[in-house]
Design a protein that fits this description.
257 residues; two-stranded antiparallel ribbon; 37% helix
């Protein structure tokens, strides 16, 4: 980051053909490999990733987003998922109850006005007791049957088995949910991922490429310092490095912290 920030860089210049290039082509390719995705891209935070997805899919005034009532959560800084959705003009189609949601609830809610099915991972809280929600695979099968896009917001972006650290539960990884049939997954570049603040979107190539063609994408893109930090972080994961700060802190005991 120091090297790139202190001098000129090839941010949008292709050394191969001496013409203008893509500012994130290397990073997007590396992220695709890391996430087991057809394609990937980045914006400036995960809320922006969700906003971009909504901008693309919810063009109609009657567009609805089907989401469980148990996933209408609040993220950091007082931002609430319902408010983000409604700010982009999407109509919420809430299904189930706070503690119980079934596949049948989703199936009943999907209509011609459905723009997408959205699943939001409860990464900053948990519910216990009389609680149940459909598996990702079940919702993916329903989305395919109904021919609607299925998006999952993972939030923290864990890339390794978090349960390997004492006292930490398993966090689903982007690769896991994509294998389970999700069309697009979005998550943070910081938090459990351990890089700079950013929002990462991975999944089906045609959808990712469509998101990158949105005029709003330019307003949400990352600068060279963030891209460099993300490249370094992704490269470290692909090399299998274990001495990354976020992983060392996750595995450290309370006394060490």
């Amino acid at each position: 980051i120091t090297s790139v920030g202190a001098s000129y860089s090839t941010l949008e210049y292709s050394l191969l053909d001496g013409a203008r290039g893509s500012r994130a082509s290397y990073l997007e390719h590396a992220l695709s490999i890391l996430c087991g995705a057809e394609s990937a891209t980045v914006v400036n935070n995960n809320a922006a990733a969700l906003v971009l997805i909504l901008e693309h899919f919810c063009r109609s005034e009657s567009a609805e987003v089907v989401i469980s009532r148990g996933e209408l959560l609040q993220i950091g800084g007082g931002f609430r998922i319902p408010e983000i959705l409604e700010a982009r003009g999407a109509r919420l189609r809430e299904v189930g109850t706070t503690n119980q949601t079934t596949v049948a609830d989703y199936a009943h809610a999907v209509t011609r006005q459905t723009a997408l099915m959205l699943k939001v991972h409860r990464s900053n809280f948990f519910m216990d007791g009389f609680v149940d929600s459909p598996l990702t695979e079940e919702l993916a099968a329903l989305a395919r049957k109904k021919r609607v896009p299925f998006v999952e917001d993972l939030g923290s972006g864990a890339m390794v088995p978090t349960e390997s650290a004492d006292g930490v539960e398993h966090e689903p990884t982007p690769a896991e949910v994509l294998k389970q049939g999700v069309d697009l997954v979005c998550f943070s570049g910081d938090k459990l991922f351990g890089g700079p603040q950013a929002g990462i979107i991975a999944g089906r190539k045609r959808m990712v490429e469509a998101l990158k063609r949105e005029p709003l994408f330019r307003a949400l893109r990352c600068d060279k310092l963030v891209l460099t930090g993300l490249e370094s972080t992704v490269d470290a994961y692909l090399r299998g490095e274990s001495r990354m700060p976020v992983l060392e802190m996750m595995r450290a005991g309370i006394d060490a912290l």
